[in-house]
Each structure stands twice: as C-alpha cells, then as structure tokens.
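Q: Structure for this?
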Amino acid sequence: MTTSLEDLERRATAHRDRPAYGHDALIACDRLVRVFTTDGVEVQALQGLDLLVTEGELMALVGASGSGKSTLMNILAGLDVPTAGAARVAGRDLLAMDAKARLGYRRDVVGFVWQQTARNLLPYLTAVQNVALPMQLGSREPKRKKAERADSLLTLLDVAHCRDRRPHQLSGGEQQRVAIAVALANSPSVLLADEPTGELDSATGEQIFAAFRTANEELGTTIVIVTHDQAVASEVRRTVAIRDGRTSTEVLRRTQVDATTGEEALVTREYAMLDRAGRLQLPAEYTRALNMEHRVALALKPDHIQIHPDTQHPQEPTP
Ligand SMILES: Nc1ncnc2c1ncn2[C@@H]1O[C@H](COP(=O)(O)OP(=O)(O)OP(=O)(O)O)[C@@H](O)[C@H]1O
C-alpha cells in the first residue's frame, strides 16, 4: 500500500493538533534527565523519567534505594535543576525559572515535608510560630487572618494542643503533623513529602498518612509522597514505581461495588509504563519468572500484544 501526499499531510496535521503531552496535568515530567558529576564520574540519577500527576491526586512514589526518588523530589521542590527534559508544575516551567521565580515557586506553589523531623521545623519557634512564618514571608493578608489560618491548620491536623510548644516538646508524630501544617501555610498547589514516616513507628506512621489524607480531602491539595512504607503505598489510589531513574510500573486501586450483594471490594491492577518512545519496562519479577533476558518474542493480536521468552529464537552467536 502506498501513502499519498494527502495522507502524509493529514497525519502531520493530526499530529500538530494533538494536545501537548501532559497539557491537563498539574505535574508533568517529560523525559527528565539528571546527571551528577563527582570527581569526573557521571551518575545518571534520572534517565528520561516521565510522570504525570493530575490536580487533586494523592499518590505515592516507591523504588529501591538509589533509583532516583529524592533527585526527582528535589527537582519538583525547585531545589535542583534537571540536566535535560521538561518539567512543569502548576504552569511553571522548572527549567526556565530565574532565581527570583524559583524563590516564589518554593514559597507559593510547593510545600515540602522531609523525613528528618528536625529539617522541617525551626527549634526556637513554637508550633504556631513555625506555621505562621511562611505566611509572613509570603501572602499580604492581614496579620489576624494569618494567625487564624495557622490555628485552623493545627486544628485540622489534630495538633491544636501543641500550639505553644517548641519542637523538642513534641513527639515525632506531632512534629510531622505540625510540619504538614507549615508546608500547607501558603496554600500550595502541591505538597511533596520525602519519606515522611521514615523515622516513625508504624502506628504513628498511620496517623501521619491520615493527616496527608485530610489535607488532600479537606483542602484539595495535590500530594506526592515518596515512601518505603508498604502500608502508605497500599493506601493510596496510585503508586508509581521508579527503577533506574525511570518510572517503571504503576499500581491503580479502586473500590468496586458488587451489583448483587452491594459489598465493596478493593480492586488492584498493575500497569507497566509505556514511554513516549514506546519503551516498556517489564517488572523484574515477571521477567525472572519466565527467564526472559536480552530479547523477547512479540506478537500483535487484535486487542493485545503477546510477549514470549525467546526460546524459539535462540540468540545470534556473538562475534
Ligand atoms: N548530589 C549528588 N551527587 C552525586 N550523585 C548523586 C547526588 N544525589 C544523588 N546522587 C546519585 O543519584 C542516584 C539516585 O539518588 P537518589 O538519592 O535520588 O535515590 P533515592 O531513590 O532517593 O534513594 P534512597 O531511597 O536511598 O533515598 C544515586 O546513585 C545517588 O548516588
């Protein structure tokens, strides 16, 4: 079959008119690359990472140590700049911001909660003073309004009783809940949290996760949590796994109501990410189970693609 000039023109027009990648996402990372060079040695922390997060989502990022999670979080937090690719958060281009725009971005667009409780709060300020501080640097609201907002955030996160205490007079869990209130002080579009339950026991970790859920449901804040905590990862609707500096698989969870019994059940489904070049990362446990290495056999079916081990097609002898 030959392709006419009209066909080519039609295809080119359709391609041009397609909305840009991630146009309706709040966070859009497109082939993000971050290379670190130390003593002449290059480390590719991010190797073309694609990630879309929609407004109002509460999602988790998981991955082995060194897979690039913190590198990604630092970029999204405006603390680091990618080497290549594109990243947009709430309409801001993270590669094109000058120092002033970056400062405004960190103050007004994103809030962050770090694993080390000590990094989140100033030790010589009380809880309510810690929450009020970003507001003083940020919005031009009257002082009374800011004080009211600081108190209502502490109440929302169930730490109103800690109002006049300094961080060392708070438990680890209370410190993290106050830290979430600080991160929400300037009503950011996105709240980023890097291992926020990492230093806490599992019961306290659950309380912290409940605080994130409250922030997401009550204030509509979009939340991205990096976690090793399986309990947190399995409570969110979407968990994205990062492997070798790329997003590899994604687990989506939804509640399904049985039509006859009316009972609710949680349905979980795992997906592999298809990047814009058509590359697919198969989960390591799948490829290991079927001894898939180097090459797999593909077959296109009407509604799916089959992937088989390369047993019928032995490897070409290497020269
Ligand atoms: N500032 C830096 N200079 C040099 N290499 C770095 C730097 N930051 C990170 N790396 C390297 O980049 C890779 C990704 O690191 P990153 O901290 O993003 O991983 P991670 O998934 O957050 O790991 P962990 O779960 O252990 O925190 C690692 O190989 C790390 O050694």
